[in-house]
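hiii so um. not sure if this is the right channel but i have a protein structure encoded as tokens and i wanna go backwards to a sequence. like what aa goes where. can anyone help
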């Protein structure tokens, strides 16, 4: 019998997919973990599950308790599913810049959703800090604290990283992924480097994030902005601290958009914007490394979470971006 034990038993063990059009284009094996196939629909189900299980094991989350989190959406969706499956309440503090689809999903799941103005991390009313304060003032509540709670990267070390190693029989030359909390990048990088220190671990970064400059120069410098959601950071989180990192690659929105549309029309995969950054960086890395290499990245979540945005011509135009499939160039700028 091959039966999964409820929602929780269904998290992880996602397929590793060869991206055909991008592999043909680069002469490399571009492989991607299909994290959008997790039961809550994103890469964040793994972290949400580990964070809740860790709090239970430590005895700080008790029956009937509340899980509070500041999240751009996907972690909240994962937490809300798991809270329902385990009988907890869920309170989500979300920046009001995030897509309506994600807020609607959270409400449908029964989470209490409090949208707050998007202000920088240094502001005491930043959504992350606010969520921590709210949790500390509540009875029988935990703050999931995904950015600095190491249960997050532990999930990816124990599951995503180990799965990638197993699914490729250890034939991996590079690992590349964008970071929000850094849990995915760091956990997988730590696992793969332990198995084979030759594997290149590269951070993919959108514009408007400080990690690219930090990895290249040691200084956090932020330039431009991005329509992608859930990725990019202006600080080094506890989850990113000490993560083995060989290099960084920056991908702009127009490049990410071309990838998203190529994934849709050539590979049949409807993906969100962060996946565009990931696969765009994998293509750039393939060009740096040359043909014959195996590069692994992540398909983070589905494009249905962004239908009103990256698949909406008018919205894209308002951001100065063009969705035209015909304009997808054959090569990327290096
Ligand atoms: N893509 C999307 C769509 C996300 O929501 C997130 C998490 N915020 C990520 C990528 C990055 O994952 P991590 O937090 O593990 O760095």
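sure thing!! here u go:
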């Amino acid at each position: 019998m091959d039966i999964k034990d409820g929602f929780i038993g269904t998290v992880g063990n996602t397929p590793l997919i060869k991206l055909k059009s991008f592999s043909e284009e680069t002469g490399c094996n571009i492989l991607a973990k299909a994290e959008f196939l997790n039961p809550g629909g994103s890469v964040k189900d793994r972290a949400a599950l580990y964070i809740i299980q860790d709090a239970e094991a430590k005895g700080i989350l008790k029956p009937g308790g509340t899980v509070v989190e500041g999240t751009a959406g996907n972690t909240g969706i994962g937490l809300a599913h798991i809270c329902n499956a385990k009988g907890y309440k869920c309170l989500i503090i979300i920046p009001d810049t995030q897509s309506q689809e994600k807020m609607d999903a959270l409400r449908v799941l029964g989470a209490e959703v409090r949208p707050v103005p998007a202000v920088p991390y240094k502001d005491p009313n930043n959504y992350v800090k606010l969520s921590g304060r709210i949790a500390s003032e509540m009875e029988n509540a935990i703050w999931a604290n995904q950015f600095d709670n190491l249960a997050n990267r532990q999930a990816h070390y124990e599951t995503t990283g180990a799965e990638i190693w197993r699914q490729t029989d250890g034939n991996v030359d590079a690992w590349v992924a964008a970071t929000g909390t850094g849990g995915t990048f760091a956990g997988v990088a730590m696992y793969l480097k332990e198995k084979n220190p030759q594997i290149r671990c590269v951070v993919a970064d959108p514009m408007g994030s400080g990690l690219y400059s930090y990895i290249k120069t040691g200084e956090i410098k932020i330039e431009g902005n991005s329509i992608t959601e859930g990725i990019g950071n202006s600080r080094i989180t506890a989850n990113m601290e000490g993560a083995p990192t060989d290099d960084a690659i920056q991908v702009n929105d127009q490049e990410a958009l071309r990838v998203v549309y190529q994934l849709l029309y050539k590979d049949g995969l409807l993906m969100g914007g962060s996946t565009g950054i990931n696969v765009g960086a994998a293509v750039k890395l393939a060009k740096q490394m040359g043909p014959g290499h195996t590069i692994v990245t992540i398909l983070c979540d589905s494009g249905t979470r962004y239908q009103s945005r990256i698949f909406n011509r008018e919205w894209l135009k308002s951001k100065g971006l063009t969705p035209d499939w015909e304009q997808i160039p054959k090569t990327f700028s290096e």
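oh and Residues 42-44, 72, 74, 178-185, 229-231, 272, 274, 300-301 surround 4'-deoxy-4'-aminopyridoxal-5'-phosphate (CB under 6 Å).
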